Amino acid sequence: MTASTSATAKSASRKHSSSPIRDRRGLVFVGSKGGRLRRSNFNLIWSKACERAGVPGAHSHDLRHTDGTLTATTGATTKELMARLGHSSTRAAMIYQHATRDRDKSIADGLGRFIDEARETK
């Protein structure tokens, strides 16, 4: 399955593609000579990019984890997370379904609405 992309993400991608500093092939990260990153130089280039972005010590997998966590925060089901992230087990997808205070409050508010509606129908 190919994951859908929001209009906002598509707009940002188009903006990047039309940037004068972008790579003509659409690569986000390139090596020092403008070529594709190789396994042998990826960590050095990634580390420098993270330093410049103000997130020293970030790992490339952090991007995937952030996407999975934010996707789960939207209310995506475990099956939807599995499809979007390419997981074959619920255990892998559950990693991204962190309990957060905001989500917990949203759940509590939703339960409160059920109670209010039940009281109104009596």
Determine Rg (CA atoms, Å): 20 Å
Distance between the termini: 46 Å
How many E strands? 0
What is the molecular shape? elongated
**Percent of residues in beta strands?**
under 5%
Which segments are poorly predicted (pLDDT under 50) over 5 or more consecutive residues?
A: none
Class from secondary-structure proportions: mainly alpha
* Order of SSEs: HHHHHH
Percent of residues in helices: 55-70%
Describe the sheet with the most strands: none
Mean pLDDT: 83
Q: Please report the number of helical segments.
A: 6
Number of domains: 2
Could you explain the architecture of this structure?
The protein is an all-alpha fold and 122 residues long. It folds into two domains: 1-58, no CATH class; 60-122, no CATH class. The chain is built from six helices and no strands. Helix 3 (60-73) runs antiparallel to helix 4 (78-85). The protein is elongated and about 70 Å long. The mean pLDDT is 83.
Topology, element by element:
Layout: H1 7-17, H2 39-53, H3 60-73, H4 78-85, H5 90-94, H6 101-120
Helix pairs in contact: 3-4
